[in-house]
UniProtKB/TrEMBL annotation:
Gene3D superfamilies: 3.40.190.290, Winged helix-like DNA-binding domain superfamily/Winged helix DNA-binding domain (1.10.10.10). The lineage of its organism: Bacteria, Pseudomonadati, Pseudomonadota, Gammaproteobacteria, Aeromonadales. Belongs to the LysR transcriptional regulatory family. Pfam families: HTH_1, LysR_substrate. Coiled coil: none annotated. PANTHER family: HTH-TYPE TRANSCRIPTIONAL ACTIVATOR TTDR-RELATED, HTH-TYPE TRANSCRIPTIONAL REGULATOR. This is LysR family transcriptional regulator. Residues 1-58 form the HTH lysR-type domain. GO terms for molecular function: DNA binding; DNA-binding transcription factor activity. The keyword Transcription regulation applies. The keyword tRNA processing does not apply. Keywords: DNA-binding, Transcription, Transcription regulation.
Amino acid sequence: MIALQDLHFLVTLATSPSFAIAARRLDVSAPHVTQKLKRLEASLGVSLFERGRQPRLTPQGRLIAERGGEVLRQMRALEESLQNSREELGGQLNIVAPIGFGEKRLAPLLGEYRRRHPHVTLDLTLSDRPAWEGNPRQPDIMFYIGDLHQSTLYRTLIAPTRRLLCAAPAYLASMPPLHRPEDLAHHHCIVLRENDEDCTLWRLRHLASGEESSIRVSPSLTSNVADAVKQWALQGLGIIHRSEWDLQPELAAGTLVPVLPDYAPPAVDIVALMGSSRESRPRRINHFITFVQERLRKELGGPKVQP
């Protein structure tokens, strides 16, 4: 008979790109993983992985990983049902989010949520290209900001936000004036790479006339980390195109100021993506989503969450 902890071990191996990554997720050494796998294979009398540079599951290993994963999901569902019967939230939440938003806005909320609900365990994975498909962490929730490509996932609005162009006052004082989007050609532009978007194509709409412009900028600095981009702007190195949620302190302090205030990039939403409808999702997911909605709409502005 296979113990539940052995099933968890095998499923973790099966869903990890390598044994080394599996070892980190299991918080054990790589030799421990190899030795335990050998013991399990000897006990079961079958080979579960084909050894090589990138170990691959054998048919028997794939069978155990698939059936074992289902058993573990059923056990988690049972545990959650027991938690719900006591009217307490419990279980695991795997969350994926963009790096900057995850660090600045989401991570503090996760800490607060954990203090309020100590039976819920939270796992936060941050990426400049958040992805659902092929994600070994099997996310429960993926937060996304930007142009959302065609998706079969269920979408929930967390909070509206907007993008704007801004720069340090010292930079603007030292450069030619900006009156129209075309004037950006004479300026240093700083670009953030994220979500596989066409990050050097800046779209702007005139707020009064509705006239739209698309400007291809030639960046002097680029990064996939939002904080690096903002620091360069604060140092007076150029103009950035960022979401307002990331710029509130600097705009309030005047260390960054809007550029081309008569124009605006397309508005974007902060959304949560999930694999199932609200009615069929575990209670902890819906509860966490409502918590984040309420907090972020209070911080960023936006409609109140309806009960």
